[in-house]
Design a protein that fits this description.
With 146 residues, the chain is mainly beta. The chain contains two helices and 13 strands. A hairpin with a 2-residue loop joins strand 8 and strand 9. The chain starts with a strand and ends with a strand.
């Protein structure tokens, strides 16, 4: 269900069901210059995470080291470790194909099983900055994008 008034979007999305566990995941198309087409990945909406992070293995599939150098933005501290943040273009098919640039740190975490572990964790300062998010009974989420 969606309501599009001028440029505002209201979406109601059911949580993803993995083996009986309901998880607030969004489909994201990540630009992937290495392959020449976008890569469809899962993104976890995490209100507890300050920064958006991308799995190192996903970045290696999509970008060469030279391409990352031109996308460097800044450094951040996550769990008492310093990480570089880069600018990535995310496209959200479930949100009427909205396309935005986000700054994300690259972290290494196990990508297997791929269908459960999200390639992107969407944090407060990047993804949730312009969004009102409501979760209902851990089954549905409403996203209002201004």
């Amino acid at each position: 269900m969606s309501l599009n008034l001028s440029r505002k979007i209201l979406k109601v999305i059911k949580f993803s069901d993995f083996y009986g566990n309901l998880i607030p995941l969004l489909k994201i198309r990540l630009e992937c210059p290495k392959t020449g087409r976008d890569k469809l990945v899962l993104g976890l909406i995490d209100t507890g995470s300050r920064y958006t992070v991308v799995n190192k293995y996903t970045v290696k599939e999509c970008f060469k080291d030279d391409e990352l150098k031109t996308r460097y933005v800044d450094k951040v501290i996550i769990n008492n470790r310093e990480y570089y943040r880069y600018s990535f273009r995310f496209i959200f098919p479930q949100l009427d194909g909205i396309s935005r640039d986000f700054n994300a740190a690259i972290l290494e975490y196990n990508p297997f099983p791929e269908e459960i572990v999200p390639a992107i964790i969407l944090g407060r300062e990047d993804f949730l900055r312009d969004i009102i998010l409501c979760m209902y009974k851990s089954e549905w989420m409403t996203l209002y994008i201004d």
